[in-house]
Specification:
The protein has 143 residues and is of the alpha+beta class. It has a domain at 51-130: RRM (RNA recognition motif) domain (Alpha-Beta Plaits, 2-Layer Sandwich), CATH 3.30.70. Helices cover 35% and strands 24% of the residues. The chain is built from six helices and six strands. The chain has helices at residues 2-8, 12-28, 33-36, 51-54, 62-67, 83-94; strands at 55-58, 72-77, 98-106, 110-113, 116-119, 123-130. The strands form two sheets. A four-stranded antiparallel β-sheet has the order 1-2-6-3. The protein has a two-stranded antiparallel ribbon with strand order 4-5. A hairpin with a 2-residue loop joins strand 4 and strand 5 (116-119).
């Protein structure tokens, strides 16, 4: 039908292409800022150096959630890290002042899978106490 469209002077193909572009642009548009204003995004620092090589993850449980009320937070840390490394890493990553660090080596439990028994990995736990009035937001709200 392209030959007949040329004779009649219709240009339907380019009009359809512009309509497709408009639909794609509508799909790509970002949502309005009012829709995302109710949630506060977690603040991630750009230059944390080697802090995340020391801090593996936050250890979340009912007990650690209760500790957070008294400015104490629990992290799983690198087994080779010492108290000084952990203190520097937490201060650099979360912009807080650490007053004390307690470290515990947790032994892996023996677990059975049918007839065979295995051993969970050993790991190191660090309990961080912050100075009065400070807290790390975003760690314990999800528990």
């Amino acid at each position: 039908m392209g030959l007949l469209d040329k004779i009649r002077g219709k240009k339907s193909a380019p009009a359809k292409a512009t309509a497709d572009k408009e639909n794609v642009l509508n799909m790509v548009k970002e949502p309005a800022p009012a829709a995302t204003a109710d949630k506060q995004p977690a603040i991630v620092k750009e230059d944390t150096g080697q802090a995340y090589q020391v801090l593996r993850s936050a250890h979340l449980s009912e007990k650690t959630n209760a500790l957070s009320a008294s400015q104490r937070y629990v992290f799983k840390v690198n087994p080779k890290a010492n108290k000084i490394d952990v203190k520097k890493a937490v201060e650099k990553a979360y912009d807080v002042h650490v007053s004390a660090v307690n470290v515990v080596n947790v032994k892996g439990k023996v677990r059975r899978m049918g007839r065979k028994s295995g051993l969970r990995s050993d790991w190191k736990k660090a309990i961080i106490t912050l100075k009065a009035g400070e807290k790390i937001s975003g760690l314990t709200e999800g528990v």
